[in-house]
Write a structure and sequence with these properties.
Elements lengths: L3 H23 L4 E8 L11 H10 L17 E6 L3 E8 H8 L4 E6 L2 E4 L4 H4 L15 H4 L2 E6 L40 E6 L2 H7 L17 H10 L3 E6 L2 E6 L7 E6 L1 E2 L2 E3 H14 L3 E4 L1 E2 L9 H11 L3 E5 L18 E6 L3 E2 L1 E6 L4 E5 L14 E5 L20 H4 L3 E5 L5 H10 L4 E5 L17 E4 L1 H13 L4 E6 L3 E2 L6 E2 L19 E4 L3 E4 L18 E4 L2 H18 L5 H10 L12 E2 L8 H4 L6 H4 L4 E2 L4 H8 L6 H5 L24 E5 L7 E10 L5 E7 L5 E6 L2 E4 L5 E10 L7 E8 L4 E10 L4
Parallel strand pairs: 6-10, 6-13, 7-10, 13-15, 15-16, 16-27, 20-21, 21-22, 22-23, 26-30, 32-39
Antiparallel strand pairs: 1-3, 1-4, 2-3, 5-12, 5-14, 8-9, 11-12, 17-25, 18-19, 18-24, 20-24, 28-29, 31-33, 33-37, 34-36, 34-38, 35-37, 38-39
Function: Required for arbuscular mycorrhiza (AM) development during AM symbiosis with AM fungi (e.g. Glomeromycota intraradices).
Family: Belongs to the peptidase S8 family.
Organism: Rhizophora mucronata
Length: about 775
């Protein structure tokens, strides 16, 4: 009986999808939004501006049966792009899109796609509050000249995290504006929030007009995600910050002296690529130095990924771009945002936790986590009836997942209900349990979550437990005549060991788009992060949650990405002349791969050591990154040469050569020779080829006179030779090259992992190494 609601739900969803597909096929005139990339240099001279040329091109493909007048009068073009990306977004039928793609001057036509958000203590955990870190947060004028553009759900300007007391005037190079709208005026921008804009034409073209009664059609953030990420990047110090008493302390961003420019691209219906693209294009023109993008979609080829193309343009303009890796872990190859010019950020834990416990009727106590604080309190000296609605402890079903409408109040009222993770949000399960009359919840991890524990601000007494303990509790509930339990909460604990640990949800490599480019690049704090919050939504984000808080605790690679964005802003302030690639190199080569017990980083999903496919180069170390010694620099032309190795057509390559009419010089013999800080050696399945040689060049950004010696991991399946083994620098910014040769000894069925380190006695410049033996397809 209880399985029927889910079966009907699946049937309805499938039927709706089939109907939608059939409608699209049977109605060739149905319009959707497409992003059209144009060859800027192909504009005929008789057009005074590019938009008129775009309109002319569009007019030429409109279906004659529509009898439409001027294209612009009909509102077909919703955006024009001219900075990081050249082209426009327009409403087209499928036939019109195909016709347009065949015209001269059109480099590509991409359907608008929906991206999803990848959704304290971290400064101290990262070493930014130690006694020797004062220089990292120095209040020099240069620190205030760095502007971070945050593409997200907007910003809640009244938060104390955006107080601009003591900040210098807005930098002269800033060209952005403060857009106004519902509940957002010019006064809401200040010397901290230097700009705020909204982008909604794409989402309105796809889903209809935004309901302004339910959603702010302005930079104001009602979701909370954007406020949280912006404060993580560059929030001003706020003493006494906490969530309902949890995680109390001073909340501050990674770069508290930096400015914030908020670009609202995400709405209740999602984040549309046409809006994101317009935001990137505008942000570059506005003058941002760093872009923080905590969202992502699927992986497309470089030439079909509009965000990859736009961020390539941003990189050309000197803008550092960091993006979240995604929350698709622990599945392999679950990454998004994998372009080599993007810094792709995974998530790790910190040494802070919010312990709670489940005490069973047998007397056994099981440790979990929770952020519950409310009027409902279960007595620790009393036991409550315990119930699990699943049929066995290993296989979740609709009822055990506590989905809407699946719990029978007669069976759960007055009891503690065990719910399996999955399908619906964790806090929503608690609401379902509460509505059914239960007094508490135990949230059990399944195989996909392993032993990783994520704390939530539940609406009833609830504790999250790991998979093994969850199975034990479920088995107890299923096999005991009168099972009972209670739950207890212990506040905030620091000094958790081991930490950091790679978060189970953090998306993983390998990067199948280009195996030679190791992704993610780094990991950063992304579990249980405290930061500013909107005043329009409760901490659980559920509409039934009427609590209001100034700060909230969230988890996701959405939280780890702004940590890296903020540290990149610190590095940019210290080294304003550095390229985006140099900043990324500093972050990667100084990252660490051991936890606070001095053992290799672990994977929360397995409790075994993680690999570079999980943690990239390692966990960021901001203080070390400010002084890396050597950097692996990459120019825009170098990235273009990498693209020349990716089997792209001349037309597809032209999408990346818009600013300077770049052409392939074929300076890279293979994609593995891109001067990337990570090293991936692919040994082909050919008897005639037993070795692979890769080349790298390092730039001295440390003491002018310095000598570096190399050390490399010993591998089972290959020998590694580095020539020369010593690099002697005589001046700052001097470049020296080396080559690393991998000679296969014994083919391995799985990749091998290790590292290469250059040492001068002060600096350790580490590159992760992956050796993969290719097999025939």
């Amino acid at each position: 009986m209880l399985e029927n609601p889910l079966k009907w739900l699946i049937f309805i969803l499938t039927s709706c999808m089939a109907s939608e597909i059939a409608l699209s096929v049977n109605n060739p005139l149905a319009r959707n939004t497409y992003i059209i990339q144009m060859d800027k240099s192909a504009k005929p001279v008789h057009f005074s501006e590019h938009l008129k040329w775009y309109s002319s091109k569009l007019q030429s493909v409109l279906l004659k049966s529509e009898n439409e007048g001027d294209v612009e009068d009909q509102g077909r073009i919703i955006y024009g792009y001219q900075n990081a990306f050249h082209g426009f977004a327009a409403q087209l039928s499928e036939e019109e899109a195909h016709k347009l793609e065949e015209l001269d001057g059109v480099l590509g036509v991409f359907p608008d796609t929906v991206y999803q958000l990848h959704t304290t203590r971290s400064p101290m955990f990262l070493g930014l509050e130690s006694k020797d870190s004062t220089n990292a947060w120095s209040q020099n004028v240069g620190d205030h000249d760095v502007i971070v553009g945050v593409l997200d759900t907007g910003i809640w300007p009244e938060s104390a995290s955006f107080n601009d007391t003591g900040m210098t005037p807005v930098p002269a190079h800033w060209k952005g504006i403060c857009e106004t709208g519902r509940a957002f005026d010019k006064r809401h921008c200040n010397r901290k929030i230097v700009g705020a804009r909204v982008f909604y034409k794409g989402i309105e073209a796809a889903t209809g007009k935004i309901n302004e009664q339910n959603e702010f059609k302005s930079p104001r953030d009602q979701d909370g995600h954007g406020t949280h990420t912006a404060a993580t990047v560059a929030g001003s110090p706020v003493p006494g910050a906490n969530l309902l008493g949890y995680a109390s302390g001073t909340a501050r961003g990674m770069a508290p002296g930096a400015r914030i420019a908020a670009y609202k691209v995400c709405w209740t219906s999602g984040c549309f690529s046409s809006d994101i693209l317009s935001a990137v294009d505008t942000a570059v023109a506005d003058g941002v130095n760093v872009l923080s993008i905590s969202l992502g979609g699927g992986v497309s080829s470089y030439s079909r990924d509009s965000l990859a193309i736009a961020t390539f343009g941003a990189m050309e303009m000197g803008v550092f771009v960091s993006c979240s890796a995604g929350n698709g872990g622990p599945d392999p190859a679950s990454l998004t945002n994998v372009s080599p010019w993007i810094t792709t950020v995974g998530a790790g834990t910190m040494d802070r936790n919010f312990p709670a416990a489940v005490r069973l009727g047998t007397g056994r106590s099981i440790t979990g986590v929770s952020l519950y604080k409310g009027r409902r309190v279960l007595s620790t000296s009393k036991q409550y009836p315990l119930v699990y609605m699943g049929s066995n402890s290993s296989s979740p079903d609709p009822t055990s997942l506590c989905l809407e409408g699946t719990l029978d109040p007669h069976l759960v009222e007055g009891k503690i209900v065990i719910c399996d993770r999955g399908i619906s949000p964790r806090v929503q399960k608690g609401q379902v349990v509460k509505d059914a009359g239960a007094v508490g919840m135990i949230l059990a991890n399944t195989a996909g979550n392993g032993e990783e524990l994520v704390a939530d601000c539940h609406l009833l007494p609830a504790v999250a437990v790991g998979e093994k303990e969850g199975k034990f509790i479920k088995q107890y509930a299923l096999t005991t005549r009168h099972p009972t339990a209670t739950v207890a909460f212990f506040g905030t604990r620091l000094g958790i060991r081991p930490s950091p640990v790679v978060a189970s949800f953090s998306s993983r490599g390998p990067n199948f788009l280009s195996l030679e480019i190791l992704k993610p690049d780094v990991i950063a704090p992304g579990v249980n992060i405290l930061a500013a919050w909107t005043d329009d939504l409760g901490p659980s984000s559920l509409p039934t949650d009427h609590r209001r808080v100034k700060f909230n605790i969230l988890s996701g690679t959405s939280m780890s990405c702004p940590h890296v964005s903020g540290v990149a802003a610190l590095i940019k302030a210290r080294h304003p002349e550095w390229s985006p690639a140099a900043i990324k190199s500093a972050l990667m080569t100084t990252a660490y791969v051991h936890d606070n017990t001095y053992k290799p980083l672990k994977d929360a999903s397995t409790a075994f050591p993680s690999t570079p496919y999980d943690h990239g180069a390692g966990h960021i170390n901001p203080l070390k990154a400010l002084d890396p010694g050597l950097v692996y620099d990459i120019k825009a032309q170098d990235y273009f040469e990498f693209l020349c190795t990716q089997n792209l057509t001349p037309t597809q390559l032209k999408a990346f050569s818009k600013h300077s009419n770049r052409s392939c010089k074929h300076s890279l013999s293979s994609p593995g020779n891109l001067n990337y800080p990570a090293i991936s050696a692919l040994i082909p399945d050919k008897l005639s080829i037993s070795s692979v040689t890769l080349h790298r060049t390092v730039t001295n950004v440390g003491p002018p006179v310095s000598t570096y010696h190399v050390a490399a991991t010993k591998f089972r399946g290959a020998t590694v030779t580095v020539e020369p083994p010593i690099l002697k620098f005589t001046k700052k910014y001097q470049k020296l090259s080396y080559k690393i040769t991998f000679t296969s000894k014994t083919r391995q069925a799985v990749p091998e992992f290790g590292g290469l380190v250059w040492k001068d006695g002060v600096h350790k410049v580490r590159s992760p190494i992956v050796i993969m033996w290719l097999t025939p397809i």
